[in-house]
Design goal:
Elements: H1 2-5, H2 35-48, E1 56-60, H3 67-79, E2 83-89, H4 101-110, H5 119-122, E3 126-130, H6 136-146, E4 152-158, H7 166-170, H8 196-210, E5 214-218, H9 229-235, E6 239-241, H10 246-258, E7 262-268, H11 269-272, H12 276-284, E8 291-295, H13 312-316
Parallel strand pairs: 1-2, 2-4, 3-4, 5-6, 5-7, 7-8
Helix pairs in contact: 2-3, 10-12
Length: 329
C-alpha cells in the first residue's frame, strides 16, 4: 500500500510474486506461463496429505501461448480433484496475441462461452464463462459456483486491459508498462530518444527492403527490437511474433535458417534462459546461421532475483558452435 501512496516507499516492493513480501504469494515468480503447473503441484501435495482446500491458478490469455501453460492444463485433468484455473482474457499479451488458440478464445467470448469448440473442455476441464470480467458481482457469483469443486475447472473471464485509466484502455500496448508520466495527460516525463531498439529496427527494415529472406522474430516483446505497431505493418510477413514462446522462437529461427532464410531473434536477457535447450540442441548442434540479439544483458534495468540481466553471459558464452559477442563497456 505504502508504495502507491509514498514516493520514498516505491522501491520497497518487488515487481513480482514474492513469499517474503506477502503471505498470499506462494512462489517467487518473475516469468510467465508457470502458474498452472505450480498450482498442479500444490493440489497434488494437498491430495497426498489427504486434505481439502481450494487451489487456484491465475493466468492471462497472453501467457497461454507459453508451452508450460499448456503442459499444466494438459496435466490438470489427471488430478481429478479440486483445481480452479482463472483465465483473465483481455484479448492482449504485451502487444496483440498471436497463435491459433486465440481464435478459440475469441469464439468463446463472442458466444458467451457457449461455443461447442472449447479449448479447455477439450483438455478435460470443466468450464465457466464470465462475460463482464470487470464486474465484481459477476466474478463473486462465478467463484461461489466453483468453490470446493471436486474436479479441475476453468473460470474464463472477459476483461479490458487498462480498465480504469482511459489512456491505458485506448493504447493497450504502449501502456503495458510506462515510464513516469503526467497522470492527467498521460504524457511521459521523458522524451523519446534513439536507443538500441530503434537502431536495430531501422537497420533490419533497410535489410528487409533489399532481401525478402530477412525476417525478425520476437516472442511476445516486439518493441525490444524497436518494432512498434507501425513498424510491424511496414515489415509485413518479414516480422514474426510467436507469442510468449521463446523455445519456439529459437527452433523457428533454426528452421528458417535451414530453409535458406536469414532470421534475427530479439529477446530480453532474462527471458532467453527459457530456451537454453533449443539454442544448444536445435540451433547450434546443427550449425544453422541465425542471429540472436539479446537486450538488457547486463546490470542495466529490471535486474532482480527473477530478472538477472548478467545471466546470459555464463549461460550462452560456453555453448559449442555459438559465436558469442558482447561489448566490454
Amino acid at each position: 500500500k505504502d508504495a502507491y501512496l509514498y514516493e520514498e516507499h516505491y522501491d520497497d516492493v518487488t515487481g513480482y510474486s514474492c513469499p517474503q513480501e506477502s503471505e498470499h504469494d506462494h512462489f517467487t515468480i518473475g516469468h510467465t506461463s508457470t502458474s498452472i503447473s505450480l498450482a498442479c503441484g500444490l493440489a497434488k501435495a494437498r491430495d497426498l496429505r489427504g486434505e481439502s482446500a481450494n487451489v487456484i491458478a491465475i493466468i492471462g490469455d497472453g501467457s497461454l501461448s507459453g508451452g508450460e501453460a499448456l503442459e499444466g492444463m494438459d496435466f490438470a485433468a489427471e488430478l481429478d480433484s479440486n483445481m480452479i484455473i482463472v483465465v483473465n482474457d483481455n484479448d492482449m499479451s504485451i502487444a496483440e496475441n498471436h497463435g491459433g488458440l486465440y481464435s478459440n478464445l475469441k469464439l468463446l467470448r463472442e458466444t458467451n462461452g457457449q461455443a461447442e469448440c472449447n479449448l479447455f473442455k477439450a483438455m478435460g476441464l470443466d468450464y465457466v464463462y464470465v462475460d463482464h470480467g470487470n464486474d465484481l458481482r459477476e466474478l463473486i457469483g462465478a467463484f461461489k459456483q466453483v468453490k470446493d469443486s471436486k474436479k479441475p475447472v476453468v473460470v474464463h473471464i472477459n476483461t479490458l486491459k487498462g480498465k480504469g485509466y482511459k489512456p491505458a484502455e485506448e493504447h493497450k500496448e504502449e501502456w503495458h508498462w510506462h515510464l513516469p508520466f503526467d497522470i492527467e495527460t498521460g504524457k511521459s516525463h521523458f522524451p523519446e530518444v534513439e536507443d538500441y531498439s530503434s537502431v536495430t529496427c531501422e537497420y533490419l527494415i533497410e535489410k528487409m527492403k533489399k532481401d525478402p529472406t530477412v525476417v525478425a522474430i520476437t516472442s511476445g516483446t516486439p518493441t525490444i527490437l524497436g518494432f512498434t505497431q507501425e513498424k510491424r505493418k511496414q515489415a509485413g510477413r518479414q516480422f514474426v511474433d510467436v507469442g510468449i514462446a521463446e523455445e519456439t522462437a529459437v527452433a523457428l529461427a533454426s528452421g528458417i535458417a535451414k530453409g535458406g532464410g536469414k532470421p534475427v531473434y530479439g529477446v530480453y536477457s532474462s527471458f532467453i534462459q527459457r530456451t537454453y535447450d533449443q539454442i544448444s540442441q536445435d540451433l547450434c548442434i546443427d550449425g544453422n546461421p541465425a542471429t540472436i540479439v539479446v537486450y538488457t544483458g547486463s546490470v542495466f534495468g529490471m535486474t532482480d532475483v527473477t530478472h538477472l540481466g548478467p545471466q546470459d553471459i555464463p549461460m550462452l558464452s560456453n555453448i559449442p558452435g555459438l559465436v558469442y559477442l558482447a561489448p566490454t563497456t
